[in-house]
Amino acid sequence: MTQPIPIRRGRTRPRLLDLFSCAGGAGKGYEDAGFEVDGCDLAPRPNYPFPYHHGDALEYLAVLITTGEIRRYAFVHASPPCQDKCSLTVGTNQSQGWGGTHEDLVAPTRTLLDATGLPYVIEQPNGRAEIRKDLTLCGEMFGLGVIRHRNFELGGWSAERLAHRPHRGRVRGYRHGRFYDGPYVAAYGNGGGKPTVAELQAAMGITWTDVREELTEAIPPAYTEHIGRAFLTVSLGVAA
């Protein structure tokens, strides 16, 4: 098993690898929790706020394992593409014959993460993705303007589950031709009463990108700040 570099107390922060990093919603939360963050994404991400490798995340991870460079890291976060089994794909899109074929990268991601010997997180939205739901987080838990449920599998460590808080109302927008108001905005798609970019930024707690596609794919940094602090406190004994 690969052994991570020991965590130093003082100024040096533990380093985290953020795979399938998109524009950095997850990475920013981990930085806020106390990590140095490096990302990797297949798409060009000029708005990503940390150093990142432009390329295939699984190929990059395999190289890091083979060369031993993975030892630079104390923790790995992965958000593999989820379109194959997310709620929208297996629900409305599939029933209507919409959309195309999507690749499920969760299993090969887990295989490589296990090979690192490092603690890790795999993040997925609600749906049929085959991960353990060790944590389920919601925007209401953090006072955000989105609901955005996300599930997290924790590999090689554990954390206390948060109790889900009842939602305060509906997600604002049109449903079947009728407009509903509510305290949350819809962080997906266009039209149908969807929020402006500025509203999305405020609701998600993301300020460094104004690209709608990046905002709608991101998870709120508050989620991974919570996870990162839990990991540092419980697993490494580092004060969060």
Blueprint of the fold:
Elements: E1 15-19, H1 25-33, E2 36-41, E3 52-54, H2 57-67, E4 75-78, H3 87-96, H4 106-116, E5 120-125, E6 135-137, E7 150-155, E8 173-175, E9 178-180, H5 197-204, H6 212-217, H7 221-235
Parallel strand pairs: 1-2, 1-4, 2-3, 4-5
Antiparallel strand pairs: 5-7, 6-7, 8-9
Describe this structure in words.
By secondary structure, the chain is α/β, with parallel strands linked by helices. Helices cover 29% and strands 16% of the residues. It has seven helices and nine strands. It has helices spanning 25-33, 57-67, 87-96, 106-116, 197-204, 212-217, 221-235; strands spanning 15-19, 36-41, 52-54, 75-78, 120-125, 135-137, 150-155, 173-175, 178-180. Strands 3-2-1-4-5-7-6 form a seven-stranded mixed β-sheet, sandwiched between helices. It has a two-stranded antiparallel sheet with strand order 8-9. Strand 1, helix 1 (25-33) and strand 2 (36-41) form a beta-alpha-beta unit. Helix 1 packs parallel to helix 7 and helix 2 (57-67) runs parallel beside helix 4. The longest helix is centred in the C-terminal third of the chain and has 15 residues, at 221-235. The chain starts with 14 loop residues before the first strand and ends in a 5-residue tail after the last helix. 37% of the residues are buried.
